[in-house]
């Protein structure tokens, strides 16, 4: 029996039926694959039963899909954590960013995540981390200016 035959039967779940209409198997979960396998086994021709190797191959494929989904989720979380860590390191730093074609700059006072994207904020300006084009240490600039003043004073004496 074909998987599409099972998905199109009246006993198939609503989510499986919706998936078969859109041909989008990416949204299927492990439980959906197990239901399909059970339905396939239940509806198989008793005179031509499914080979054990075929069943094992399908179970292995289900496990691979589950492992891949877990890996994708873990990598997404890791990437988000790294982005938030990078953004939090910008707190107290002066950044330059391009937002909507306009260059903005300010000293970062917050780092946050919303809808899977990392943002840094200064004042009332909120900037995606991916839009940051430059970072500087505002304290270091004022120290350099003071050092330059001292140098001028030393040269004049």
UniProtKB/TrEMBL annotation:
Region Disordered, annotated ranges: 1-24, 130-157
Bias (Polar residues) occurs at: 1-20
Keywords (A to Z) from UniProt: Bacterial flagellum biogenesis
Q: Which residues cross the membrane?
A: none
Gene Ontology biological process terms in this record? bacterial-type flagellum organization
Instruction: List the biased-composition ranges (Acidic residues).
Output: 140-157
Protein function = Required for flagellar hook formation. May act as a scaffolding protein.
Which family, according to the similarity comment?
Answer: Belongs to the FlgD family.
Name of the protein in question: Basal-body rod modification protein FlgD
Organism of provenance: Kolteria novifilia
């Amino acid at each position: 029996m074909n998987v599409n035959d099972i998905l199109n039967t009246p006993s198939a779940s609503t989510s499986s039926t919706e998936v078969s209409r859109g041909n989008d198997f990416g949204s299927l979960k492990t439980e959906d694959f197990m239901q399909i396998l059970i339905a396939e086994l239940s509806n198989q021709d008793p005179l031509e039963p499914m080979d054990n190797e075929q069943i094992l191959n399908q179970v292995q494929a289900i496990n691979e899909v589950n492992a891949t989904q877990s890996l994708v989720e873990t990598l997404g979380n890791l990437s988000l954590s790294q982005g938030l860590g990078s953004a939090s390191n910008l707190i107290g730093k002066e950044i330059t960013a391009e937002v909507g074609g306009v260059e903005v700059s300010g000293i970062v006072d917050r780092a946050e995540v919303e809808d899977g994207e990392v943002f840094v904020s200064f004042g009332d300006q909120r900037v995606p981390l991916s839009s940051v084009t430059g970072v500087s240490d505002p304290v270091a600039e004022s120290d350099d200016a003071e050092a330059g003043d001292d140098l001028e004073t030393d040269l004049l004496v």
